[in-house]
Each structure stands twice: as structure tokens, then as C-alpha cells.
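Practice set, problem 2.
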Amino acid sequence: MSEEIALEWFRDRIDALSAKGQAAREESVDHADPLVPAVQAGGSLHAWLQRAGLPGGKAVLVLPRESVVMRRLQLPLSPENELPDLVRFQAATKTAAPIDSLVLDYLPLPVQPGRDGQDVIAISIDRDKLARMKAVCDAAGLEVTRVTLASLGVGRFLRTKAASDLGIDGPDLVVYQQHSQVELSIFDEGSLVLSHVVHLADDAHGDALKPLNMEITRLFMALVQTRGEVVVTRCFYLSGTPHPGVQNLLEQRFGAGLKVIDPTETGRGKSVPGFEALSGALTSSSDPSLSIDLLHPRKRVDAPDRRKLYFSIAGISAALLLAGGSYWFYSTKGALENQVAVADEEIRGQEEFLKKGKPRSDAHARVVRWMEGDPHPVELWSHLHKYFPGRDRVYLQEFRIVPMQGAMIARFTGKGRARDRSDVDFLQQSLSDNGYRVRPNTPALGNRDPDFPWQFDLDVELPRTVIAPPASKGPAKTPAPAVQPPKPPTTAAVSTGNAGSGAK
């Protein structure tokens, strides 16, 4: 049996690790450049593997966080077999790309007590991009057996060799650094729930580490949006070459809760510093909370159609009836009647299932009718966003678009934060001057974000007369120019928010 290797597919390099702990790194862009033929790129990859002494054969493809899109989706409670279809349907409403152009898998999260639904973490990649990777590996003589995510590999590495309770009893932050790239991941409810990447300068110290500190804050705020008031008390810092500035920053934020992991001293097995994600990807695990496979994503398994079997039995029984006389005739007739009754019961069950799913189908049809008859939600958001003071003045923590009928096309609601109260007043006045129906509210001071202390509620309605219908071929109305409010002196621009729903 050939030895399995793991390949991490960066834009500018490929990292490789064998099951025996032999590692190599190739600085190249041919494998990711679509202008380079896959056969040529595969030949270069094959030659490099031979020079490095790495085996061919089976390979696990590990994707860095920047190569995929992660979303937390809320679904109704349903049988496990129906989850793949529900995930694809819900993901189709959250992405601008056609769902058929994506390869999608998901991590199931445990159902929380008292909730009517369940959450999953959907992970997707462009289908053509994944096909290119596999074509290069095929040309290099590698058989790709599965495609997973580097963040999950790091989680499996830590859970296997350093922290078996990672993300089990509460949310844990994992900081995984490879040179200037720092990957931040939160493990909660036993699985990966959030992950982002920050790139630091080679000599990052002091103020140069502010982006890292801000990104940690953004992750925690996004976690609060989905889990309520939870506190992350443990942080695992994993790096083959720990950065003193990064380690000092984490010590200031977590104190005794910081655990610096030395990859060379993590129990049994061989580990090469800088290749921990690949080591975790090669670890055998049947835990679905840390396992995806974009090569073989989860799919609905349809129950076998037994009607052909019943018809075959009926045909054989009929032949026996003709050859066996009246005794066999009556006995077989009774058996067939029982089988027909079972088939009828199954048909009634299927009809009841279809009736239960009709409200969901009707709701989908209403959404389609609304999206075809009115401007797309992205267009509505763009129309609203251009009246905001600026990304350094206001950001949104929550945002929701509610379609409406009659004179109003949509209602926008949400919660946000502002640097100064005048920014909130300016935003409300600007929206009102440009035709929006604004429900004013009084902003309040808060202490969650000291750079943006003023918190406010957004509640506005957009009349149909303000925005041109999507079928119109003429030029759209030019809104009244927004007058920028006076800006108080500031020392830094902070941009935070819930991923996928905030305004910067």
C-alpha cells in the first residue's frame, strides 16, 4: 500500500508532508495560475516531489482558509438525511454565485436545548477552481482521496496531541502562525465555527500588530451575535517560530488562559514545525464535527425504490399460480394483497411528506417572485449604503432586509455603532433627505467598543418611488449629494462587524 501524503495548496507555494513526517515546500505559482496548462503544472509538481523524495500515490488536498467561503446557516429541525438539500437551498439564498457553480460541504453543529432549529457551518469553493487543483494532481500522478480545510487540520492536530477538549466545554481561540500569516479560528460546540486570516509585516511590532488585535475583537463580536454573551478564556498559540510581539499581545489579552504549543513536544508521532495543518489532516478521525470532504461532500441518500421489486414478485407469483393450481393461487394472492397494502401505506406516507413540505415550497416561490419583481437585495443594500457617513464613522452589527408590498419596497432594520452622536444624526438626516422614511431613535452610549461608543437602532423604509424598477433600461435617478458631517479628530480608523451582515 502506497504511503499517503498531504498537500496544502497556497497561491504562491505548495507545502507537502508524508505520513512518516517527511516535509517539503515549493515556492511556485504555476499550480494556481489558470494560464499554465494543468499538464505542465502537474509535471512540475511531479518532478518536485521526486526531488524532495516524497512518495506519489494517494494524496489529501488541504485548502487554506482564504481559498474557501465559510457561512453559518440556520436551518429548521429535520432528519439528518434531509440536511444536505436544506443546506444547499439555504446557501443558494446567501451567495451571489449560482449554487451549481460551487462545491459545498458542511459541519453539523449540535442542536441547542430550547431552540426550534439547528445550525451548520457551510464551506464552499468554486467548482472550476477545485477541478483545476485535481487536474494538476492527476497530471502529477497523484490520486486525490479527499479535500479538507487547513483550519480543521489544525483543530484535529491540537485535539489529538495537545487539547482533547478543544471547543468542547466552551469557545476556544486558536492562533496558528506561519511566518507573516496568522490564522484565527474559534472552536465552539465541538466544531469550527469562525475562522479568519491576518497578514502581518515581517517586522510587525507595536502598532503594526493592531490589525491582529482588531481581528480578534471582530471574531469575538461575531461569536456573541450567534451564541449570546459568551467569554473566550482559553487561547492556544501554535507556531513553529513564535513571534514575540504576537505572543506578548496574546498574553495581555488572555493572561493565564494563553497556552503556547510547541509542535515538537506534542506527544506521540512525528511533527514538523510549520506543517501542523497537514499533520492534522493526515490524522485518522471519524469525528464529523472536524471533518469535511469537498471531493465527496455530504449528499442526500434516497431510499431504494421497491416498486420494481414488488412488480417482479408479482410476476413470479403469477407464473407460479398458472403452474401450481388453485392452492398456490389463493396462497399467493393473499401474499400479494399484503404487499399491496404495504405499498399503499408507503405511498400514503410519501404523500403526507409532500404535504408537509408544501408550505416551505410555497415560501420559496414567494421569495422567487419577490426577487424577480423587485430589485435584488444587493441592489437595495448598495442604494442604502451610499448614504452612510464612512467606514471610519459608522458600522453595523446587525442588518436585515424585509420585503414589503404596496408603496414601500423594503424595510431595513439593524443595530450599529458610531464614533460620535453627530454621525447618527447625519445618517438619519441623509436618509430622510433622500426619500427614505426614517423612524428616528435616540442613540445611547455603550462600553463594548470604546472607539465607537454610540450605539443606535436602524429602522427605515424605502418607497418604491425612490429607486428605479429592475426592468427599466433608462438611467437611474441620481440621489441628492450627501453632505459629510464634521469629523472629530481621530487617531485610527476601526472597521468591525458581523461577517456577512455589517457595513463598513
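Problem 2, part (b): a different protein.
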Amino acid sequence: MNAAESRLATEKKKGFVFPYRLEWDASRKESPWWMTIVSIVLALVFCGIFIWANGMNPLTVYGKMLNGAFGTQFGITETLVKAIPLLLCGLGVAVAYRISIWNIGRKGSSPLGQWRQLRLRSIFRICRLTLLYRP
């Protein structure tokens, strides 16, 4: 019996069971804290192998990447300009995943939002023309 089942059994004994529960780990598979660090290190090593296979030093390439992204004020602002839309789309997908709702993703929602904005703009343009028309 895992922790969630034992908690549910305890609440049933008390006589009240709340049907919905907010949990940090929706899949109920807790991963250790070091798994993130190991994943990042393995990704850097794996990419480093391909960089080395192309005849370059991976440490030099990673240093130039960090310097280009965070070395100057221009680099920081451009990094933020590229990262913020991706972070917001990731947040939208994460929220949709948490509440088990289907999400069309960034490639689908961006054109859909642009189309909707265009329709609203054309409707307001028609309304503005009819308000300005005086016979």
C-alpha cells in the first residue's frame, strides 16, 4: 500500500473523503532530487561527444555558448526574448496536463489566437465604420 492509498484509508475511517486532491506528483511516481542533475550532466556529455566528433573542444563550445547567451546585456535580453514565449507555452501545457485537458500546443494555439484576433479586429472595424456613418 503506497502513501496515497494509506491516506485514503485513513480518511475513510474518519468518515469523510474529499473526492479531489491536489498533488505535486500526478503520476504518483516520486523521482529523487538528483535525477535532474544526472539528466543535465548526461545531456551535456552526450552533446559533447557529437561536438568532439566534429573536431571541436566541447568545453570551449559550451563556454562560448554561455558567453553568447549571458556575457553581454544584449545577449541576456535576446535570451529572454527567445525564452519567455517558450516558458509561457510550457506553463500552459503543464497546467493542461495537470488537469487532464487536451492542449493543441504552441504550434496550434498561436495561429488560432492570431486568427481570433484578426476576426475581432475586423468586427470592431465594421462596428467603427457603422458608428461613423451618418446619412
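Answer key, part (b): The chain is about 75% helix and 0% strand. The mean pLDDT is 76.
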